[in-house]
Queue: 4 jobs
Job 1
Amino acid sequence: MSIINTFDISTEAIINPSSVVTPVEGFPKIAIGIFGERTVDVVREKYSATQIDALYACVTMPIYKINFEGVDIAVFGCTLGGPVAVGSMEEIFIKGCEKILYVGSCGVLDREIAEAALIVPTAAYRDEGTSYHYAPSSDYIDIASASKLSTVFSGLKLPHTLGKTWTTDAFYRETRGNMEKRKAEGCITVEMECASIMAAAQFRGYEAYQFFYAADNLDEDEWDARLLGGFPQDAREKVVRISIETAVRL
């Protein structure tokens, strides 16, 4: 059986999130998952964050709590890749969360998208493995939550771009040929978790949102690192502020 045909709803999972995680009293109903340890550091340093719990994968990932405009928010760092991102999400919802906003960088497939521009993905190409265990075979996962997130951004007067994303497991195998195919289909970004996260969230009925900020550029004769060559501290602080202000309005 090929990986794209491994979606199984006729039999039960052997291990469920509730088998290993229990609800946490008073756990914030809103959470922000951040791909980037240094960006999590901004939350700890600027928003009086206190650690309230942790996730345990290959490394310990602390879960912090902050309060913004009278709303408690859980904040946690995510490691790259769909499997850990989805496993963490499964456990966060069991702990008591009701909605998660994910934020991280992406590569752009269109050179006209400016450095640090905000992007809301509308569909994700499934060049990974996790999503095929949460949704029937298809090339793309449509992202049901994209329109609501875009509406919140518009209400905050945050310019942003809507478009398809390419989720890949292998960032060192983003070949020129595959990039051109995805671009021709309308993908404007590449990253490593969106298809996995959204397939799992929609399978479970979880409320999950995701946006990116543009980092490197693949739409040149040679790769342009852009922000991956050095992400300014003030830009990190801006991303954190946007995430927090958005989360409380979702």
Job 2
Amino acid sequence: MRFDLTDLRLFLHVHEAGTITGGAHASHMTLASASERIRGMEETLGVALLTRERRGVRVTPAGHTLLQHARLVLSQIDRMHHDLGDYRSGLRGHVRLLCNSSAMSEHLPECISGFLAEHAGMSLDLEERTSEDIVDAVRNQLGEVGVVADSADLQGLAVYPFREDPLVLVCPHGHPLARHKSIAFARVTDHPLVGLGAASALHDHVNQQARRQGKTLHYRVRLRSFESVCRVVGQGIGVAIVPKAVALRHRRSCHISVVTLTDAWARRHLVICVRCLQDLPEHVQQLVHYLTAAAAR
């Protein structure tokens, strides 16, 4: 079946005009050329698309099916031209950025705000996931760029440094653990915790570390933001594992003590990962270059 876009537009015009003559005029072609194209479509399909009547033509059931598909195809073509035309007006495209909890809340907001301010036509879609899920998605081309903890399995991906992002313990002042400068996670697992919701990437990460030690963590409450976690900890409800940047920002206002975690998994860095930077669209490469430059500042 060999229809081109001219055939499809002609058929739509014939239907709208009610005559082949009117369809030919709307398509800027001669009546003979239009008639030949219609006959060619019918011969290719082996069915009549139009019923010729005294005062014009009527679309057959097969013709109605062709009309539905023609509208879909031409609509998609028009959308493609619109999207590509956006490049001419400065719109550079859309990027799907996958990131873990800490990157989402602490490190990316300022960076992406700066990037979007410099690239007025760009848009970003940020999605929070665990680092392990992110690297799998990037490997399988289900995401273009990931910001993950370097503890994830990054084999086969191009990796660029982004930010230091150690995890720490926060406690209310006067808590037995607050007198320590540093502590192992194993000494924390028996204490009531305050954490993020079960859908949080950090929640999954911390619970995974507990399971590796044969422990099940007890959460007194789960909240939606790091600030809320710190505030509840400061009220003496429990202790929490949060990124160091979060703890330092809220230490005074939430009345919490910050204790270093000695476990290797807590001494983490955030990195940017992609399959192959050179294979990505130009606007995605621009974002990666911007984030790596921000990391160097």
Job 3
Amino acid sequence: MRFFEVVIGTLFFSSLVFASGHTEHSSHGSTHWGYTGHTGPGNWGDLSPKYQMCKLGSSQSPIDIRYDDIVKTRALEEINFSYNRGAKSVINNGHTIQVNVEEGNSISIDGIRFELKQFHFHTPSENEIQGKSFPLEAHFVHISSDGKIAVVAVLFEEGRHNATLKKIWRKMPYRVGDTEDLELSSSYINMLLPRDKSYYRFSGSLTTPPCSEGVRWFVLKHYSKVSEQQVDDFLNIMHHENNRPIQPINARKIMN
């Protein structure tokens, strides 16, 4: 399984594109972390010097998007989605179910092209809206040619069975570290996104160790659907919830 690892000063990308192995025992010797017990989110910052930002950072993700913290603009720039290639594999890395995509998918914003590397899922949602949690959240992880990171977050509300998730879930590996081939066309990937792609924007961090900051976050305002059974099926594979708790917004403002 190939790593994408980018270092921009202290911005360390390897935790977002996981390798195979038990939870995150990677070939790079990453410190073991998890979502429960002594390796859970409350202790991430103490597990390794590389993870100190998890407790010291001032612009950490996820956040609760509160209307009082929103700065209204005349019009945020539209995100130009260009998802024209399909998926190639799905991996259970012990932290999430991650879909790896073919090269050639991207978004463009701020005059920068960010290539889609993978997308993965958290249950319940990591980000919240006005204190409301959602049963599932997808993170589409993009990186520019010079190492900048942009994450598009899609929140799912309970409803009808999701056709794209059905195809992915059928291939979800039961064992940690296992990878399965996945034939998922670009049309199905696009179906995970709501039609209206307006968004909330803020500066944040990786939601997993090393919790590096400087990440562009775009949380879509409109939701996709997931059935209760599909959420249960995800939890049956993961055996635990996999969301980092809400982090303080501090001096940040959310752009709308």
Job 4
Amino acid sequence: MKGEITLKILETLAGAARGLVDATEAFLSAGYGASYSKLQRESSRIESRRVAEKLRARARNNYAVLISKLKSQGIIEAKQISGEKRFFITKKGKEKLFALRQRRKNKLPAISGSLKKSGAPLIVAFDIPEKQRRKRDWLRIVLGQMGLTRVQRSIWMGKGKLPEEFLDSLYQLDLIDCVEIFEVGKTGTLKHVA
């Protein structure tokens, strides 16, 4: 590519110049006669400060872009009140807010836990109506992630105890009446768990 060599030379010189400036600043900050490790710490501090400044600048830019986008979409509007610029939500923005809240409300919970070690085999059976297909699919995925094995489409087996967050999610999704959880006792009998 044309100019590739020139680009490399300029990048190298820019990096060397910045490195020289950083080294000088670290030397002045550490003081005369400072140890090599103290100079290294000062140099690291300076580099960390530079990175943090870049991240703050990027965040400010992202914020400005987002505000501009929301204004252009008519979701928010800016007004001058007492000499200050303030933002307000529009009617279209309120509709968008309602839609976003509905989407969050319909989001299915993520389960990060797995079966807790225990000696008893566990059977999970469920019968979830077709109208609640998303919840049924979610349940199958979560049971697999927790380490249970599918015996049939709606019967799963594993060894251990289910995490509390899983049971809480069943209540939250109003599936507790559709799911049966059994623990197989040492005597070979089934014991209803939940």
